[in-house]
């Protein structure tokens, strides 16, 4: 039983139109209207990867994880239940909105909501970016999420022991010389992306430190930086290259208040030869803070 991809996110908002402008004009995704006022942001052949809904709160409402088969889906559901974590089946309307065969949700040991689905439903129409952007998603999921936790060990134990994720690497980052380092654990699932999920010993009221999307060239990263300036989007971290996945990226602030990493050149791993490593440095160069926001 395995998760094969980070399939989608459900983002709660107080202002859907800000996300429409940001998603199309800055990120270069295509926007369509979904049921009940939901905004879909499309970045590949799937009908959406970001679903934005009015929850009256700026938040990462849920992270959606794709199981390879219905059998894997059912096995994961049983595993979560055996771990004494409540499983909530999706309603008919919720399943329709997510465009999947089925899903269930649960709250992990960090108090964060996740959804496991199988069988994405889409027209598989060609993605046409309003800015000419090409995203890297095929067989890798749409990107990654770094989520806050005050319960790192139990959370990582759950995701590795119950959900069958693997540890990619561990970062111990010194933010304040007078305080202990912050630990961030990076995890991979059933594809080659160096990490699809990570948990950081940080606090964030949105339930998200950052999401990452990847594009095919460094020129697309540069063009995105131009659009960020044109739309007056705050940059939270400057351009840099990460130690763990070699991603060249910058970070910006989304309409939801959390960060989005926009990058290129991420490693695709062969997990049969990978060795878990630990580092005290997040980036080879760059990624300097601008807004005083936490890294990674």
List keywords for this structure.
single chain; 296 residues; alpha+beta; ten-stranded mixed sheet; eight-stranded mixed sheet; 5 helices; 19% helix; globular
Characterise this structure:
- This protein is of the alpha+beta class.
- Helix content is 19%, strand content 37%.
- It contains five helices and 18 strands.
- The strands form two sheets. The chain has a ten-stranded mixed sheet, covered by helices on one side. An eight-stranded mixed sheet has the order 2-3-4-1-5-8-7-6, sandwiched between helices.
- Strand 2 and strand 3 (39-42) form a beta hairpin.
Summarize the helices and strands and which ones pair or pack.
Elements: E1 3-13, H1 16-27, E2 30-33, E3 39-42, E4 50-54, E5 59-67, H2 70-82, E6 88-89, H3 92-98, E7 100-107, E8 113-120, E9 143-148, H4 152-161, E10 166-173, E11 182-188, E12 197-200, E13 210-215, H5 218-230, E14 235-242, E15 248-253, E16 259-264, E17 277-279, E18 283-286
Rg over CA atoms:
18 Å
On the 0-100 scale, what is the average pLDDT? Answer: 96
Instruction: Determine the number of helices (DSSP H or I, runs of at least 4 residues).
Output: 5
List the strand order in the largest sheet. Answer: 17-10-11-12-9-13-16-15-14-18
Strand count, sense and closure of the main sheet?
10 strands, mixed
Strand content: 35-45%
- Which regions have little confidence, pLDDT < 50, spanning 5+ residues? none
Structural class by helix and strand composition: alpha+beta
Say how many strands there are.
18
Amino- and carboxy-terminal Cα gap: 29 Å
What order do the helices and strands follow?
A: EHEEEEHEHEEEHEEEEHEEEEE
Described by the principal axes of the CA atoms, the overall outline is: globular
Helical content stands at 10-25%
